Amino acid sequence: MALTPIPQNYRNNVDWILGAYTDAGVSFPNGFQKDAIQNAVGARKTNKWKNWRCDISLIENAHGKYVVVEDSGTVGLTGKNTPAEEINALMAQGKTLPAEERLSRFTSMFNSGGNTTGGGLFGAGKSVYSVASQSYTYYYDSLREDGLYVANVNKSGQVNFTAYEGDEAKKYIFDNTGLTEKKTVGTRIIIESPKEELVDSINNGDIVPFIQESWWIIIQRLTDDAAITVNGVKVEVPEDIKNGTHSFELQNPEIYMPGYKVKHFGLYAFDDGDNRWNGISYYRKGMKIGEIDIKEIPKKIENKFWGFIEVDEQWEDDLSDIEDKVHFGVSKGKKNTATYQHLKNYCNNKFKANLIEWGYIKDKESEDKKLKDELKQIAEDIQDLFDRLGFEDLGKGPQKADFDVRWQDISYPVEDSERVTSGDTIGFSVRIKSSYATDKRFEYKLSVVNPLTGTVVSSIANDKITVQSNTVKKIDFSHTVSKQNSVQFSENRIVLSVKVIGSGKEKRKELPYFFDIDKPDNTREAVNLVLHECIFPTENSRRVNFGEALRSVSYLIENKRNHVLDYRLNVSIHNASDPTCPKIVDIASFTGTVEPFEETVTTPIDTIPFDQKTYEPYLSEGILELRARLIANADDPQYEKGDKITFYHYKIFLNSDEKNGKNDSFDVQSVVAPEDFRRSWHTAGNGRTITLNVGHVAYLNVSDYPDVQHDYMREQMLKQYVLLYLAEGKYDMFGEQGRDFADLEPQEAADQVLQKIESVYFQSLR
After folding, report:
1. Which of 83, 103, 565, 738 could, after both became Cys, cross-link 594 (CB 3.0–4.6 A)?
2. pTM beyond cutoff 0.85
3. Which residues contact 723 (CB under 8 A, 6 or more apart)?
4. What's the rounded Cα separation, in Å, for the pair 263 and 346?
């Protein structure tokens, strides 16, 4: 007996598309437009857009109602008019029709591939036209680039033995649909009895926003003679998609890591929530595929941003391998691949970096982070002081920031209180210090902001000034509080924004006041994380070379709460020489518990080796960060399982020496060491560090008074900075007039050091 094809239920074979759209969380019209336009995009002979069009329209005549998808500026259904039986025989043998046999490919059911100019590879393809029809029927005709006109039909999987050609084809289309032949080179799909959901979306224009979001990148690249249209109306890119409060666009392609290159990245934030689209999406060959998983989105920007990313061709090809069948995201179980993880990590890093710059993420996420930032600011102030006093450099290092902005001479109506009432005046000065080599124009704005909503309540000042090279400009202001310019019975903040005109660089400062209310007690229970021990190959140096290792790395976790802490600590190393700081390798993960008001030291990591094979693909020399992240491992009254609690970042210098200069003369760190009698100490040499003991009773005694505590830390740091000069042999600042410090008697030398400390401290208060 002769073999015959297995009987199939065509409708069941194509209805999977409906389920796939549902699984992707999209409507049928949205899925239809993407697959239909993608087919037209992929029908181009080259990547050029000249004279290319894709027209989606609804037509009603005496024969019925039709949805028509027509492309122009393509090559049409080229190739031999092969009988259906021959095509079936070839496919039964597992053969794939060549890419140029477009007519035979379109006539067959499961023959895909060969698409080099569009985003589709093995997706819904032409089957989407069947499921778009209530009768699972569509006609198709094509004027080919060789001048031949062909036509055929697909009725629930049944096609004519061969396609009609020439006048017969024209008559066939007209007799069955009432439409005249296609006059432009390309292909036309005529869907019989289209689904009402699709008809409605075309009639009322609901399909247009779907097209705009899926194809805006291509639409904006189209030449004047090219277009996507709906019912004859050209689809345009909305003018307002980038008109947000903040925006960032990658100016030049950048390599995320070897083999992974980003071509375009954009991020747009809308404080008023007027963004059309949400989330960050990745686009392949100009077509939106799916959204990137973004973590840790602040409430104030949730659903108020959108962004996009395009990567190079090789990365796109790798992404296509893990894509779902309808081009709306990543297939289940494929998100753990390196291809997607690199994409996700890049977008998350860019997202967080921009949100920090724009002020959506504050550096007060934990008490530990707050302390670290405060110490860094004090260190900057002290080093500026030593600069003004004319002390010599301890060592050359990175350049200073281009400009610096600070509050000065702050005066509230009542001393030691930030409470005000109507009619009270707050006085303050703004200091702008420019380190630019040339004179610069700055724009500054002073506004009153409601911190609960982030909205501007009133404006205090808005002006532009010129600050000469390497000079300081000081401007005095006063703000008289009233119900018209402030929110009564609430916290208000005077927000200063200073921008460099022409560069986009901006710095912000905030000054709080409390209108007819007392300042609330913001003291909250905290969990602190610090590096307890880390032994480097060379004492007093944070340099490691290939083949060397860190030893005995452990962390101290302090639970300053009345709840048991069930934690997970993840330790990893990141490439801090890259602005996105990508992770290179995971080091360890610990779990454990800490009782209320107790502390614990983690089990030491014996060694962290720096082998060339692991690190050289990322960098051969530069800065690494040893990162520890503390995460809640169970729910408690303050945290839910999985919440990020706090973190600790520690710089390591790979195959390079740590650089030091006056503006970066030392690192500052804190340790909890209540058993140590020292309030602070210093480490001289390559690993120049000032350490503050935040477990000392003297520090804890002022913990309820933040301003006093700040002054305490500043005094300790200043003292240790003076002693660093002594430890490194910089004796000139200590000698009596006419006498060398080295020649002084011990008591005289001690007196001189103490006098220098007191003198510098006194001058710091002036």
Report:
1. 565
2. no
3. 682, 753, 757
4. 12
